[in-house]
Amino acid sequence: MNAMMRAAVLEGIEHIAVRDVPLPTVGANDVLVRIESVGVCGSDVHYYHEGRIGDFVVEQPLILGHEAAGTIVSVGSAVSPGRVGQRVTIEPQRPCRQCDQCRAGRYNLCPDIQFYATPPIDGAFAQFQTIATDFAYDLPDQISMAAGALCEPLSVGVAAARKA
Q1: CA-CA distance, 21 to 18, in Å (whole number)?
Q2: Which residue from 28, 34, 62, 127 lies 20 to 30 Å from 20 (Cα-Cα)?
């Protein structure tokens, strides 16, 4: 029997339902995060109202939410078990790690990058989510989970300001 969790699933335009869905599979280099706080991004709102953003069309049920923080509850076989119990914020993307951009450390420019809460990758409006261990950043105790969930949108603003 597969382990299940609860998630808010976008099932159609302006239709979200709370469903039991399978717990995400933890890969060798992944951590399983118990989600404790999630922000609502403009992209989530856009998918909810329009069912798409440009070429990214929601054709199957999709879990939204990519601005998230939580606690690591399980780790993959290649990850130190010492990570269990760590409070983290996530960088919600999956670069290919093979292209020239990724190998040069510019994974944000990866032509094959996939983003959480963008078809076909589910997001974090769920009890749990997996993330590559190097995209799960330690969250100091003095930073709340709610503030931790806002690290991703803050990083976008900081990156834009640095380029201005």
Answers
A1: 9
A2: 28
Contact assessment for residue 23 and residue 5, using Cβ atoms and an 8 Å cutoff: yes
CATH homologous superfamily of 4-157 equals Medium-chain alcohol dehydrogenases, catalytic domain (3.90.180.10)
- When pLDDT is averaged across residues 96-103 and rounded to a whole number, the result is 97
The pairing of strands 4-12 and 128-132 is unpaired
Q: What torsion do the CA atoms of 98, 99, 102, 106 make, to the nearest 10 degrees?
A: 180
- CA 51/CA 43 separation, integer angstroms: 10
- Residue 159's pLDDT band, with cuts at 50, 70 and 90, is confident
Q: What is the DSSP letter of 101?
A: H
- Locate the domains of the chain by residue range: 4-157
Task: Report d(CA 116, CA 161) in Å as an integer.
Answer: 24
Q: What is the largest CA-CA distance in the chain?
A: 52
119 near 59, Cβ under 8 Å? yes
